[in-house]
Amino acid sequence: MDNNLITTPDIDPEENPDLSELFRAMAYNHGNEKIRAWAKFCDATRPYLVSYIRRTFDEFDSMIADEVAQETLIKVFTHARQYRGKTNPESKAYIRTIARRTALDIIEKENFPLIKFEHDLSTDTVTPEEIGDRLIGHDWEEFLAGLTQQEKQAAILKYEMGLSQKEISLPEEMNLTEGRISQIIKSIKDKALLYFDIED
């Protein structure tokens, strides 16, 4: 018997599964337990991935979005040991990054039209999260360079690591009130609109 076996956590559809534990189970188990962990990870994240891909890449229909999600999940399984996060927001940010890169590869390979999201930025329905996800695929480092130090720190925590405003406000992160974090996030959105020379 393998004494180092990591138990694959059971998933209650009504609760948020611990994705980091599933990452560990995929990374360090073998055989059926490794596959079982991946199957549970797929069940827990596929709908989220498909929704994210459809929302971010409007060139993709549901079939292509599902294919991107599947390829993303295969890459997650193959490179599970590379994951270093410990929370569900970090796990989701990690798989979003893989999904985004996978989608951009498909767009380049299949000669899809370039992604256009300026119109979405100028509407009231777009969320800061969507702005962050889309900006990261478009000159993200250049955009960060134009932010204040606080804005840059908040942008990285929110859009790269996937932390909530409440998590960003904690002492171990930025140690500011949630209200102040909300103001900083709004400033980031406003600068995104200016960065792309769009009238709100």
Q: How is this structure best described in words?
A:
The chain is mainly α and 200 residues long. 65% of the residues lie in helices and 0% in strands. It has 2 domains: 19-110, RNA polymerase sigma factor, region 2, helix turn helix motif (Rna Polymerase Sigma Factor, Chain: A, Orthogonal Bundle), CATH 1.10.1740; 118-195, Arc Repressor Mutant, subunit A (Orthogonal Bundle). It is built from 10 helices and no strands. It has helices at residues 19-28, 31-56, 62-78, 88-110, 118-121, 128-136, 140-145, 149-160, 165-169, 178-195.
Nearest-integer average pLDDT: 76
CATH superfamily assignment of the largest domain?
A: RNA polymerase sigma factor, region 2, helix turn helix motif
How many DSSP helices?
10
**What structural category do the secondary elements indicate?**
mainly alpha
CATH topology of the largest domain: Rna Polymerase Sigma Factor, Chain: A
The CATH architecture of the largest domain is: Orthogonal Bundle
Can you give keywords for this protein?
200 residues, mainly alpha, Rna Polymerase Sigma Factor, Chain: A, Arc Repressor Mutant, subunit A, 2 domains, 0% strand, globular
Q: What is the strand and helix layout of this fold?
A:
Layout: H1 19-28, H2 31-56, H3 62-78, H4 88-110, H5 118-121, H6 128-136, H7 140-145, H8 149-160, H9 165-169, H10 178-195
Helix pairs in contact: 1-2, 2-3, 2-4, 3-4, 6-8, 8-10
